[in-house]
Amino acid sequence: MLPLLFILTTVAAIVLFFRASGNNRQVAVFFSGWAVVIAGLSWKGFFQQTTAPPPRMLVVLVPAVIAVVYFYRLLRRRDVTARQLLWVHVVRIPVEYVLYRLFLEGAVPRSMTFAGYNLDILSGISALLLALYLIFSGKALPHRLFLAWNVAAMVLLIVIVVIAIISAPSPIQLLAFEQPNRAILLFPYTLLPAIVVPLILLSHLLVLKKERISRW
After folding, report:
1. In Å, how far are 85, 92, 149, 187 from 127, measured between CA atoms?
2. Which residue in 24, 35, 82, 114 is a FRET match for 16, CA 20 to 30 A apart?
3. Which pLDDT score, from 0 to 100, does residue 216 have?
């Protein structure tokens, strides 16, 4: 059930971001196709070889960075809906649940969960509350509050990404040697750095890009 939950979470992230991007076809085609490629490679055990250089996780990380830069530049401010981007962050709630369960199974270190140094679940819960507030109040969020929330939530995301990278079995591993981040190498959890994290990061960056010109 846990793998299925994570697959559904990944699909939800793609669909929610697609809608928030103004139904951009390139978003749908790239992230759906890339998810299939990464899922196939991880299913075959491609990423479990961690000793031979260069690290195979670069196949995930490098395209993820390129995708973030590309879609940040591609998507126009007027096509992006900041209110809908909030819903993308709600997927952080099931992601954190999955990470905690993986910790109990010995597949990720405690530091990657809300029982350790990962406070990213607060971003997911607060995003849900903000989204519901917008729906039921009919009011806009204060400009500075929304910007501050995006910056704070992005910092929390960066913190857990760094912890995840340096806890994974690789030549640059620095933490969690007794219980490393093995899940990131396995199907379907490789989709976290390949799909879910880039979409969440893009959701922050696009809001900040939009907010430079006008309020939403």
Report:
1. 9, 9, 9, 27
2. 114
3. 42
Closest by CA position to 165, among listed 175, 157, 156, 155: 175
Cα separations in angstroms, 181 against 124, 158, 165, 173, 193: 22, 16, 8, 10, 12
How many CA atoms does the CB half-sphere of 197 hold within 13 Å? 25
pLDDT band, residue 72 (cuts 50/70/90): very high
Distance CA 139, CA 117 (A): 34
List the end-to-end C-alpha distance of the chain, in Å, as a whole number: 39
pLDDT over 80 at 159, yes or no: yes
- What are the residue boundaries of the structural domains of the chain, listed by start? 2-201
- Interatomic CA distance for residues 107 and 105, integer angstroms: 6
Two tokens, residue 105 = 């199974």
What's the token pair of residue 33? 């196709």
